[in-house]
Design a protein that fits this description.
It is a single chain. It contains eleven helices and twelve strands. It is α/β, with parallel strands linked by helices and about 350 residues long. The strands form two sheets. Strands 2-1-3-12-11-4-5-10-8-9 form a ten-stranded mixed beta sheet, sandwiched between helices. It has a two-stranded antiparallel sheet with strand order 6-7. The radius of gyration is 20 Å and the shape is globular. It starts with 9 loop residues before the first strand and ends with a helix. Bound molecules: nicotinamide-adenine-dinucleotide (NAD). The site of nicotinamide-adenine-dinucleotide has 20 residues, from loops. Nicotinamide-adenine-dinucleotide binds near residues 79, 253 and 277.
Length: about 350
Amino acid sequence: MAPSSAHPSVPATLIPGDGIGPEISTAVVEILDVLGRPFAWETQEGGMAAVQKSGDPLPAALLDSIRRTKLALKGPLTTPVGGGFRSVNVRLREEFKLYANVRPARTLIPGGRYEDIDLVLVRENLEGLYVGFEHYIPIDGDPSAVAISSGINTRAGSRRIAEFAFDYAVKNGRKKVTLVHKANVLKALTGIFLETAKEVARKYEGRIAVDERIVDACAMQLVLNPWQFDVIVTTNLFGDILSDEIAGLVGGLGMAPGANIGEGAAIFEAVHGSAPDIAGKGIANPLALLLAAALMIEHVGKHDMARRLRKAIDQTLRDDGVRTGDLGGKATTKDMTQAIVHRLG
Ligand code: NAD
C-alpha cells in the first residue's frame, strides 16, 4: 500500500545490522511496505559491515543520518571482541543521549508458561555502573589483582527517568509504577534514585499508584506473580537484567522489542543480538524487530497503522499457528513474513 498525502512516510534511518540483521530487516521492510510505508528509509551500514569498509562500526554517515532523521530502526550490531572497540550500542546511546530504554512485554502466544502478561520495563540508559569507570590495582606482579568499578547516578538523571516512566504510564493508560532499587545496600548509588523517584511520584498522586521493590525480591516476584506489575522503572544494570527476565516470561528474546528514547532522537531495536549461530540460514524470527517497528510507528503517532500491524501479528501467531524455530515451530523467516503480509492483505 502506498503512503497517501494525508499519511506521508516519515524519514527514518534503517541500520540492517550484522548476522541475522539483514534477514530480519528485509522481512520488516517488506511487511511495512504492505502496511502503508510509514517510513521513508535512509539505509546505513553499521557494525561489522562498516568495520570492514571504514574501520569504524559507527561511521560518520550513519551518525549524520540519525542526526537528520532523529529516528532509527536498528538491526543487531555485533560488537567486535578485542581491537579496542567500545560497544556500538552504548556509543549510540551516549551520542544521542538516549536516556530511557523502554521494553514492553506482552503475551502473544497462548499456552506458554504465563498467560496475559502485559508489563513495561523502563530502564535508565546512561548512568549507573554502565559508565564503565573501571580500573585494576596490581599486587605482587599480578597486574589485575583487584578490580574496581564506580557507578554514577545523578539526581537529574534519576528525576528524568522517573518522570519519563510516570508520563509513559499516564499516556498509555497504565495504573501503577514500581520503583526498583537496592538502596538497602547501595545506599548512595541507588538511594539517590529511590529518593528522587519517590519525589516525582508525589506529583502523580491520585493518577498513578506507586510502590517499590528491592531488585532481588522483584526478580523473584516476576517469576511467582508477574501480573502484580504494570510499569517498572529502575537503574541501568538492574534494568538490563530484569528486562531479559521479563522477555523470558513472554517467549524469549525473539519476541522482545526495545525503544531507546532521548531528547534529540529515538532508536528502536530488537533486544536480541546478531545470533551468529543461525545467521544466513533463513530461520531467524523477525518478530522482535517487527514489534520494535510497531513501537516506532506509535512513536510517530500513526496509531491506526500500529494497531493493524499488531492485529496481523496476533492472527499469524494465534490463528494461523505460524511460528519460527525459537517459538517451537518450523516456519522460516520468509514463511513468517508472508503469513503476516497475507493477514495485512
Ligand atoms: P544473541 O541474542 O545474538 O543470541 C542468543 C541466542 O538467541 C542464540 O542462540 C540465537 O540464535 C538466539 N536468537 C537471537 N535472536 C533470535 C531470533 N530473532 N530468532 C531466533 N533465534 C534468535 O546473543 P549473543 O549470541 O550473546 O550475541 C551475539 C552478538 O550480538 C554479540 O556480538 C553481541 O555483542 C551482539 N549483541 C547485540 C545487541 C544489539 O545490537 N542490540 C544485543 C545483544 C547482543
